[in-house]
């Protein structure tokens, strides 16, 4: 990932990025992958703030007073199906229930308060679950579905290669950012939106009908989810860059609106 610098550090908007809980080097970590943080910093022009996945213990909606938006990252873990009323099976694993307990309430609070929200891959699936939708597991095993998993490789640039066509709904919010010509994206997932939440609008689909992008119908600000990974090529792929720039513009808009309201209140 090679993102170019955008914006200055003074006065940059701040973006909350909920962490994953990971185990390595003998420790449990609350961590977010660099590719997301760097795309926020270098292309959206905002300061990322990683939020530990301790949502069962804390009401993180309090941090919405101090940030200008929220970004939800991708992760290999899956939303626990208990969150959408289904019993867990081995096909739903692995889980990260600390992250679920953090992101699901935070998504609802972010939308209620009108902060910009950008949801990527696992985050896109979380957005659907947080608003009452459900998720299908192991979609590559379903007839008429393509294989949306990453190519087998140890080289991240190959796993994240742009290779899958998506069609963008004319007249939609994604089309207002990227236009209506089909684009190619990367694809690294085994699950997909099944029942779409009532407050979500489909913005793009893959050739097998898999939902690839959604927006929140009643959102007061930028509220977009994508099943692919624009963060990985945000420094070089025009569509990926444009999405992060649009998120950055929404963050700056929210920040300046908040400053105006605060100064009017004295
Ligand atoms: N677990 C979900 C979400 C997929 C996702 O966020 N993938 C990120 C890429 C992880 C990697 O393979 O490196 C699903 O599989 O649908």
Automatic annotation (TrEMBL):
It catalyses: 4-(gamma-L-glutamylamino)butanoate + H2O = 4-aminobutanoate + L-glutamate. One of its GO terms (molecular function) is gamma-glutamyl-gamma-aminobutyrate hydrolase activity. It holds the Pfam family Peptidase_C26. One of its GO terms (biological process) is polyamine catabolic process. The keyword Ion transport does not apply. CDD domains: GATase1_2. Keywords: Hydrolase. Its EC number is 3.5.1.94. It is an enzyme of class 3 (hydrolase). InterPro entries: Class_I_gatase-like, Peptidase_C26, PuuD-like. Belongs to the peptidase C26 family. Involved in the breakdown of putrescine via hydrolysis of the gamma-glutamyl linkage of gamma-glutamyl-gamma-aminobutyrate. This is gamma-glutamyl-gamma-aminobutyrate hydrolase. The lineage of its organism: Bacteria, Pseudomonadati, Pseudomonadota, Alphaproteobacteria, Hyphomicrobiales.
């Amino acid at each position: 990932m090679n993102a170019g610098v955008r914006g200055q550090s003074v006065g940059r908007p701040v973006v909350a990025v909920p962490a994953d809980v990971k185990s390595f080097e003998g420790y449990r970590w609350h961590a977010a992958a660099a590719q997301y943080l760097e795309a926020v910093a270098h292309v959206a022009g905002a300061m990322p703030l990683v939020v530990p996945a301790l949502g069962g213990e804390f009401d993180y909606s309090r941090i919405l007073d101090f940030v200008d938006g929220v970004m939800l990252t991708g992760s290999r873990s899956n939303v626990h199906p208990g969150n959408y009323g289904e019993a867990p099976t081995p096909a739903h694993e692995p889980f990260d229930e600390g992250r679920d307990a953090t992101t699901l309430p935070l998504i609802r609070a972010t939308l209620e308060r009108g902060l910009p929200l950008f949801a990527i891959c696992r985050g896109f699936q979380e957005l659907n679950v947080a608003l009452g939708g459900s998720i299908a597991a192991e979609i590559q095993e379903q007839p008429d579905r393509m294989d949306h998993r990453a190519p087998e490789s140890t080289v991240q640039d190959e796993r994240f290669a742009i290779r899958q066509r998506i069609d963008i709904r004319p007249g939609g919010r994604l089309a207002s950012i990227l236009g209506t010509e089909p684009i190619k994206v990367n694809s690294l997932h085994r699950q997909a939106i099944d029942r779409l939440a009532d407050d979500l609008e489909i913005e793009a689909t893959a050739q097998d009908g898999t939902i690839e992008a959604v927006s929140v119908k009643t959102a007061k600000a930028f509220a977009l989810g994508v099943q692919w990974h624009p963060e990985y090529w945000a420094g070089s792929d025009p569509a990926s860059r444009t999405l992060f720039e649009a998120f950055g513009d929404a963050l700056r808009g929210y920040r300046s609106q908040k400053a105006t309201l605060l100064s009017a209140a004295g």
